[in-house]
Specification:
Length: 258
């Protein structure tokens, strides 16, 4: 991988977009590499949680690579948006929790990738934004859909139509990020969250992710039905047998790594 770094330890895989000279902007090759990396991790039983970040101390991802995309026909632009959406959908539907460690600028496609992750932790120096309108375009990798779901319509329209960046603290107030830390503590906080998840039943974590992801696309009534079905599936797992048995025996559960 030319533009992605990965490191795995204790079932946590850290994926870093590594183009610091371009503030980790995502060119086509990097989008493809990220997809390949996520598919590999999905099938890797030794990996339980993913932390996605950017190399260097300035940017998470400063957007799609604008220089690579100065001219495109409308048809090419649709295809390009679809390729980006394939990546954000892959992350959103990932069967293992993906935490965005937002260490700097998360703009345009970068903010959209962060929003596709299951949770976001921001360094106090991070800046979030959907500045596409400044380029005369609109978000194309899910921003118009995921941002209002995360922060509500009014705040989303302010960010998308206003094109201004917001600070990490403001992103926290809006519910866009789960935590804000000092730059030095960012990865520590993400590892702490990952370790907590890794102590739980892996099947249960996977099923709960699926219930939240799919349920948000349904009416509440259908979502509840879907939840009940997944609840039933949870009862077919070794996790459930071990988890309930451990409670009765007053000991910590010993879940199998999966
Ligand atoms: N793409 C390419 N290069 C980028 C980049 C980006 N998104 N963001 C930064 N860079 C590069 C800069 O050009 C500069 O490279 P050199 O000039 O040194 O070669 C280097 O990274 C450092 O950036 P700055 O010198 O600008 O650093 P500053 O600290 O002064 O400013 C900044 C930081 C984040 C405020 C600024 O770099 C900035 O505004 N960056 C752009 C943010 C942005 O607008 N992102 C894109 C959002 S839109 C498509 C067309 C477009 C898109 C998609 C499809 N088609 C035609 C199909 C766009 C989608 C988006 O994501």
């Amino acid at each position: 991988m030319a533009n992605i770094l990965t490191e795995s330890k204790d079932r946590i895989t850290v994926v870093a977009v590594n183009r610091p000279e371009a503030l980790n902007a995502l060119n086509g090759d990097t989008v493809n590499e990220l997809k390949d990396v996520f598919r590999t991790i999905r099938d890797d039983e030794k990996s339980g949680v993913v932390i996605l970040t950017g190399s260097g101390d300035k940017a998470f991802i400063a957007g799609a690579d604008i220089k690579e995309m100065t001219s495109a026909s409308p048809t090419e632009a649709i295809a390009s948006a679809r390729r980006g959406q394939d990546l954000t959908n892959l992350i959103q539907d990932f069967p293992k929790v993906v935490i965005a460690a937002v260490n700097g600028f998360a703009l345009g496609g970068g903010c959209e990738v962060a929003m596709a992750c299951h949770m976001r932790v921001a360094s106090s120096s991070a800046m979030f934004g959907q500045p596409e309108v400044n380029l005369g375009i609109i978000p194309g990798w899910g921003g118009t859909q995921r941002l209002p779901r995360l922060v509500g319509k009014g705040r989303a329209v302010e960010m998308i139509a206003g094109g201004e960046m917001v600070s990490a603290d403001r992103a926290f107030e809006m519910g866009l990020v789960n935590y804000v830390t000092s730059p030095e503590k960012l990865m520590e906080k993400c590892h702490e969250l990952a370790q907590s998840i890794l102590k739980r039943g892996p099947d249960a974590v996977r099923l709960s992710l699926e219930a939240v992801n799919r349920g948000m696309e349904m009416t509440q009534e259908l979502g509840l039905q879907y939840e009940a079905n997944l609840f039933g599936i949870a009862f077919s797992t070794e996790d459930r047998i071990e988890g309930t048995k451990a409670f009765v025996e007053k000991r910590k559960p010993n879940f199998k790594e999966k």
